[in-house]
């Protein structure tokens, strides 16, 4: 065995260690992909059943928007608290508890009740799901060294897309044929089944979230010296968080209002809207995997992560902005739908860039907290967007949907420019360690 092989085995690199370690790394990654699929199926169900829920509970667009915004009331707080806590313990148990709470939160509105029950359920679900993305990324990265995290990180992010793509047709069918409350029962059952699988197959890998270079001080010493305040004041953390905020605004619009826009704004039937709503998510999956491949290729060729992560991510947001801003300039439902799919698909891929950038920037014992706080700031977009767009729809009618897309395009443009010009994790990480 060569010295390099010995070093790789000591580091726990699943790409060079034993077959069992590699298999376990990808099994855990696969479970966490499904974890994120369930997460976003939970988020999307109200958007898919928007017209049915509004008719059943006699809700205005503003009230329905507020019910969806309630999901994010404790979402950000939970992301911070659990993210900081996850830096001190293995995330395996945290993930299991979250999955169980997701199932429990679906039960009250599945049983019955009106707007108050729906809001209470969404607040509880949001609190349980708030830490999901950063903790899932943290657990995934623990199985891979930094230079090999782009693909598994992208796959976990892809779970967001797969959750909507796979759930939308099935949940729409259940909603149309068996009532929207039945769809909640289905999601509760799926979450419980996943929790059982995670209990037996899940786990945390041998890697810290950031790998210290040879000759560097110990991770524990670096963690103690680098405070969260210093991390949060770096241009990289500020810019990537702002850029990710614009991405999440677009995601919130897709989850809550895109089905209604397709149905009430562009004239598709509810069944057609349920099928078409997956287009931006499919586009996002293609962009996400392409972005991961391009970023990984650039890094292997020695290109700085300023360009491999910040530049590539900024380019996808900017192109997404152009597509969104082009929606009012074209005629016909087909052309508008195509631009919506392209714009939102490009925008949604930035989550993977944000996660890998912060995991590179932060010292080992600060990474989960840095990811959690970033996620907390970013997901305030989910608190604001549904309510604001609901008010726009009530006041402007179908034009409110298109105006919301224009606002989203302008925000994405700003986010893309910030990412391309200010995100430089390798530089700022060196400054934190200096």
What does this structure look like?
This protein has 434 residues and is mainly alpha-helical. Helix 2 (19-48) packs across helix 13 and helix 18 packs antiparallel against helix 19. Helices cover 80% and strands 0% of the residues. The radius of gyration is 21 Å and the shape is globular. The chain has helices at 3-11, 19-48, 50-57, 61-70, 75-86, 91-111, 115-129, 132-141, 150-178, 180-201, 219-225, 228-232, 235-265, 270-276, 279-300, 305-325, 333-348, 350-361, 367-378, 380-396, 399-422, 425-433. The chain starts with a helix and ends with a helix. Residues 1-17 and 209-218 have low confidence and may be disordered. The chain has 22 helices and no strands.
The percent range for helix content is over 70%
> What general form does the structure show?
globular
SSE sequence, one letter per element: HHHHHHHHHHHHHHHHHHHHHH
Q: What structural category do the secondary elements indicate?
A: mainly alpha
> What percent of residues are in strands?
under 5%
What is the number of beta strands?
A: 0
* Chain-averaged pLDDT: 86
Spatial extent as radius of gyration:
21 Å
For the terminal residues, how far apart are their CA atoms? 35 Å
Q: Quaternary arrangement of the chains shown?
A: single chain
- Put simply, the count of helices is 22
Question: Which terms would index this structure?
Answer:
mainly alpha; disordered N terminus; 22 helices; 80% helix; single chain; globular; 434 residues
Q: How do you describe this structure in short?
A:
It is built from 22 helices and no strands. The model is unreliable at 1-17 and 209-218 (pLDDT under 50). The chain is an all-alpha fold.
